[in-house]
Amino acid sequence: xxVQELLANPAVQGGAAPFVAGLIAAVVLGRFRLxxxxxxxxxxxxxxxxxxxxxxxxxxxxxxxxLGLAAPLAGIFFDFAFRPTRLGxxxxxxxxxxAAAWVFWPVISQKGLERSLLQGATAVLxxxxxxxxxxxxxxxxxxxxxxxxxxxxxxxxxxxIFAASLTYGLYGFAIAAGSGAFLLVQVITGRRIxxxxxxxxxxxxxxxxxxxxxxxxxxxxxxxxxxxxLVPVAANLRVPMGTPLRLQAVLSSxxxxxxxxxxxALAWHAGG
Amino acid sequence: xSSRFHAGLLAAALPFAAAAAPESFTVDPYxxxxxxxxxxxxxxxxxxxxxxxxxxxxxxxxxxxxxxxLSVPTxxxxxxxxxxxxxxxxxxxxxxxxxxxxxxxxxxxxxxxxATKFSGDHPAMVEGELTLLGVTKPLNLTVERWNCGPxxxxxxxxxxxxxxxxxxxxxxxxxxxxxxxPVSDEVKLWISIxxxxx
Lengths: 272, 198
What we know:
- By secondary structure, chain A is mainly α.
- Chain A contains twelve helices and no strands.
- In chain A, helix 7 runs antiparallel to helix 8.
- Chain A is globular and about 50 Å long.
- Chain B has a single domain (22-197), classed as Lipid/polyisoprenoid-binding, YceI-like (Lipocalin, Beta Barrel), CATH 2.40.128.
- Chain B has helices spanning 2-20, 91-96, and strands spanning 23-27, 33-39, 45-50, 54-60, 65-73, 77-78, 108-119, 122-132, 135-150, 159-170, 186-197.
- The longest helix of chain B has 19 residues, at 2-20.
- The two termini of chain B are 37 Å apart.
- In chain B, 31% of the residues are buried.
- Chain A binds chain B through residues 5, 8, 10, 50-52, 54, 57, 59-61, 106-107, 110-111, 161-168, 213, 216-219, 267-268, 271-272, and chain B through 84, 88-89, 93-94, 96-99, 102, 104-107, 133-135, 175, 177-179, 181-182.
């Protein structure tokens, strides 16, 4: 197998290569409170191999890619310029909802009223909800944040494939790979890396947009997106007091993955 | 003598005058289909077609000019596999997804071209532009089997033309980059077309 053939393999494009990029970013940038950039490193690697950085015409997918690249910049700004506040979380929530509307409105507006309302409301509210929960509950806990990114990315990946889009599936897996790398560094070193909005916006925020894209542009049912939006809540469930970091990472990931699996099962059965 | 002669001359010349003028045609949606073909895993050629097409055509055989505008609703795509069976989705559903034709976001594919070469009275080459996934690129079509005449189904009351137009393009030029390699970049397009004179 040649290198070219290897790099054309979807498992490499959406899994192995993003994981390596995420791991390098988490290790190198973790000491500068920028370990959360592991996710954007993974996501950008997948984009490079799968679609390339072309933004014209500015389709919904390309808007998500743009947001994926811009999200960590907004995250860094919020993490370094302000202390985490409720107001900051609400502002990012509104920004998340506006981003979802910007991405999907041109497509949704072409559909019938019922589908427009259902898919539009699902996309905007799910994105807003995930951003809110991630900023309020997960941004300050890097293990739970990593677990949420891992589970939501993997769940989005599998559900998107069931919804007929391997491209969105690979982007979901890339986010899972970056989040997994972020989590793995913490598990191996036993030390937490700052997550903050730098990580959560790139991981859970972009993953739910990809899930919404699989609903609007492919065939993911709206209720799968709703269940996927509950993954960050599941990853935030309590673990026994005094649980070691490694076990906490496993338990939080497991909680999230169980909910993600339900969303995937719903997506599978929606196909008839 | 002269008025009769002139009237006769006019009557004889009328059909030629009609043929010399640019004539407008409307595409017959029941006998016109765009087909496509791409290689799968470097082995077989997977073929599909769009079940609907609409368009107009202007032809002036005397001046040897012509133009055509076609519009294809991409959601009508089929490749003969629309039953998912035990798989998550069928191939047709996959082809309609953002991996390929992204029909929800780009519901129309269109082609505009001008006939630039004629073989006798028949157009032989159309130079034009294909718009797919919001990207417009040049695409030339070679015209074969072109023929015009009275429609036998209407005892000659309607006049129609038809033939096949073929060409090929690189799907990656239009941003359709999913799995280029395992699924060939080059897509062959051929359009079987019939059109009635307006």
